[in-house]
Design a protein that fits this description.
The chain is α+β, with helices and mostly antiparallel strands and 382 residues long. The chain is built from 8 helices and 19 strands. It folds into 2 domains: 185 residues, 2-Layer Sandwich (D-amino Acid Aminotransferase, Chain A, domain 1), CATH 3.30.470.10; 169 residues, D-amino Acid Aminotransferase, subunit A, domain 2 (D-amino Acid Aminotransferase, Chain A, domain 2, Alpha-Beta Barrel). Strands 1, 2, 3, 4, 5, 6, 7, 8, 9 and 19 form a 10-stranded mixed β-sheet that branches. Helix 1 runs antiparallel to helix 3 and helix 3 crosses helix 4. The chain binds pyridoxal-5'-phosphate (PLP). It comes from Guyanagaster necrorhizus.
């Protein structure tokens, strides 16, 4: 435990004296010809590449290289690279929006940078200057600004990634790395209005994250265990998996879960979300929803939520809302939860006032229509 805790603080032995990532060394090489823009309505999440990407590499003897923004192109990597063999791969998910002032904005990006550094530390990947990476992401967004559809609910999804590129099969921390950032235009995750409620299938025979594991970090390897169960759930007619470990609810697919409970006395509701016990990814959206609710006078309780409790609340007609959140979907309400062992579905008939209010508040802050604290950060000065 202590060993990787110190790695998380970026104190990687032996490589702390090489040059850190320096945004002022950025070179920009623009593409000779620009790609045609697809019609926004035709966008499928994460499938369109833009004209440029950002690339920086780490070598243990020379440190972080001069960052480059250059034409989007395949990477060339040694087949022995650590990322292919030992899954040294971490990433972030962020979005850039166009505000009413025509400026590109990021949402609480320093939270993503801190989480990226924590994820890299957990994989024993080299530390980096978080502010420098954020500066570079703002430059990339400014260069790719024409790709942000200026339509409500549309944005540019940003995927900062760090992979281990140590080219050797001997199992060891990767002392070489590549940090790259790509962007892709995205539309609303759910196109119908009002959005169709999501159906979940409770799954406890497959496990996404376990105590002492890596579920609290954004590592590529966390997503593999969900691929097959997700396909099985889809075949049974459910949109997503509800991950349950020993009766305890953790997340749904790759989204954080909130539950709205009617008080027994009938005087309002309580909102709860699973506590960050190491199996839950600490979402920026989760944190923001908690803070927005608190501002409105609703304290969210972070505690264990069990399937036994959800079933009991449903039977007492006190299970008011279950909703999911993450950068990609923002907020989505759950309509039903398929129970294991042929017990049928828990049905949430609606309405969903808490989820609706949170979705609206988040979107208007993200799109710069409402200023709230320093959550919306402008990218460009033009
Ligand atoms: C990224 C992610 C989330 C959502 O995090 P946000 O910062 O809100 O986008 C939730 N759960 C998992 C497992 C994730 O990977």
């Amino acid at each position: 435990m202590a060993a990787w805790k110190s790695l998380q603080n970026g104190s990687l032995e032996g490589i702390s004296r090489v040059p850190d990532l320096d945004a002022s060394k950025l070179t920009i090489t623009l593409a000779n010809s620009l790609k045609p823009m697809p019609a926004p309505e035709s966008l499928v999440f994460g499938s369109v590449s833009t004209d440029h990407m950002l690339v920086v590499s780490f070598d243990p003897s020379t440190g972080w290289s001069a960052p480059e923004i250059k034409p989007y192109a395949p990477l060339s990597l040694d087949p022995m690279s650590s990322c292919f063999q030992y899954c040294t791969s971490v990433f972030e998910g962020m979005k850039a929006y166009i505000g009413p002032d025509g400026k590109a904005r990021l949402f609480r990006p320093e939270k993503n940078m801190a989480r990226l550094a924590r994820s890299a530390g957990r994989c024993a990947l080299p530390p980096f200057n978080e502010n420098a990476v954020l500066t570079l992401i703002k430059r990339l967004v400014s260069v790719e600004k024409r790709w942000i559809p200026a339509l409500e609910g549309y944005s540019l999804y940003i995927r900062p990634t760090i992979i281990g590129t140590r080219a050797a099969l001997g199992l060891a921390p990767s002392d070489h790395a590549l940090l790259y950032v790509l962007v892709t235009p995205v539309g609303p995750f759910f196109r119908q209005t009002p959005a169709k409620p999501v159906s979940l299938l409770a799954v406890s025979d497959s496990v996404r994250a376990w105590p002492g594991g890596t579920g609290g970090h954004k590592l590529g390897l966390n997503y593999t265990p969900g691929l097959l169960p997700q396909r099985v759930a889809a075949k049974k007619g459910y949109d997503q998996i509800l991950w349950v470990l020993d009766d305890v609810v953790s997340e749904a697919g790759v989204m954080n879960v909130f539950v709205v409970i009617k008080r027994e006395a009938g005087d309002g509701v309580d909102v709860v979300t699973p506590e960050l016990d190491g199996t839950i990814l600490p979402g920026v959206t989760r944190m923001s929803v908690m803070e927005l609710l608190q501002k409105r006078g609703t304290q969210v309780a972070e505690r264990k939520v069990t399937m036994t409790e959800l079933k009991a609340l449903s039977a007492q007609r006190r299970l008011s809302e279950v909703f999911l959140m993450g950068t990609a979907i923002i907020v989505a309400s759950v309509g039903r939860i398929g129970l294991e062992g042929g017990e049928g579905d828990l049905v949430l008939p609606g309405p969903t006032p808490v989820a609706d209010a949170m979705k609206k508040s988040l979107l208007e802050i993200q799109e710069g229509r409402v200023e709230f604290e320093d959550w919306s950060v402008i990218c460009d000065d033009d």
